UniProtKB/TrEMBL annotation:
This is Uncharacterized protein. It comes from Hyaloscypha variabilis (strain UAMH 11265 / GT02V1 / F). Residues 1-24 form the signal peptide. The chain crosses the membrane at residues 81-100, 125-144, 235-254, 266-287, 359-384, 404-423, 443-465, 517-536. The keyword Kinase does not apply.
Amino acid sequence: MIRLPSRNILTIWVLLSLLTPIRGQNGLNTTCWQLASAENVTQISYPVNGYVVYYITWSWFVHTPVCLGNGPSGLRMTGDFILVLTAFALPAVIFSTVIPRRWRLDMPQRFLTVGRSRVGNISKLFLSIPAICVVATVDMIGWITCIMTFAGPMAFSGVLEMLLDFRVVSFLERNRESPAKERLEAIVALLCGNYDQDPDDPTARIHSSLIPFQLTKASLESTKSRLVTILNSQVSFGTTIGLPAVFFLGGFWYNAGQTNPRGAVSYGIFLMVLVIVTIISGTLLAGNSPHTVSVLLGNRHVKRTHGRGILLSDVYDSELHPVAMWDRGFSKYQWLKNTMMWQQQGAFQDAVRVDVGSWAAITAAAWLLVATPCLLSLTLSYLVPWPWFGSSSLVLTTYLASQTWLILVALVVAYLDAPLCTIWRPFDLLPKAASQSLLSRSLLVISTFLTGGATFLAAFGTVFASGYHLSDGYGEELIWTVPVSSWVKPPSKRLVVVYSETTTQTYADYLANMTQYLPLGAVILTCVICFLGWWYHEALRIALKDVVENIEE
């Protein structure tokens, strides 16, 4: 049997084909506004000095077909709206492929094999192509939603691993007199610390393959060559992160310069959370793909199956599998704790151990990385076109609150020396906790329910924001800026915005500054983080290569 090529190219093709027929809202529904003015059903409000807003009641709106888009409501195909989708959606797909994961949706292998029967092969071809397009699209949408949902724990774990990488490399640079085998073991932990150790622990096989039992001059040179090969086999930061970031920021800045760009730009700033998580993932020393290390092992000691259910399969067809991004810091910490240098309880343990102050710094850094784009997007949604806590503000506030809780959960679980998935099995944390009283059990159960609620809210906020901006909707001013306070009113008193305008040049200049400087701040933030990530990654790689080259017997 011959296995057909991967479905990666089809993913981009399907998303492009889906984006093409989508229609966008070309500004406000002017026909609805003109009809409301003619029938004298509008109400006037001045929410801020220099701005006037015209309302109609919800009941009049829903009984007027032209306002719901069933008449000449101004809906039309717009190239700018398609560009919004391609500038934001496609880079999100590219960024999501950089972040490691274990499972993916995939077609069963029997649909992707070629047999002897021509009729059967043609039938499989016509059945598999549309099926794999749908599966690939659902897989990408689901994975992007998963990344945005657990962005906080992913950032926390990534920052933790960055700190561990820096401390280990710095220690090895300062202590070149340490035994060669111990130094090699620590370097292997840096390069392979993201591989899953449960249930089939590959540590012994990796050590026996990369670190010889007896170090001689020839075996040491071979080992050093293998370690440098592992480093060189990793895809460069510029290829995986830099080019997609330029594409994303270019499309984002173009949309920021268009007329009335608030909704699209606010969504673009919100998606920068995904970009920042990807940047963190690209700065880590341990590569995502395990294939190079698997080849160096020289065998195929596979005990686990490569499928889970009908449509789930391993992302990497290898005996090694990277842990999820939200557990990478925990995994590397475990690898380092199992090294001889750590178990000797000497200077290495003192230099690498994460103390209370370090945990606080990691938590603060992770929160700032995730919260800053959310706060910029929230500020833009709240201030423009007038200060008002509307639907957009509520979604972003809920998302930020859920990420704050998930980061705190990741902190507690990591401090108790357990993977993040343990939060769904709260009683597994009891042996690690100081107390096993009824109060501790109750708090763990409550924490699990709160974590489930935060996960749901984060996923809902991601899907709602993406679905609104990538669909027709009822117009930007109808749903996205409707005041939250009006939700509790009956339909006969609930108000809908149909028209708004500035009345003073001062406020018009203020809006222009907000719509310019807030997106500019988001672009500068992303560029700075991207540059710092590239510099950190390259500097650490060069330092680690220097450490490897200077290892002697």
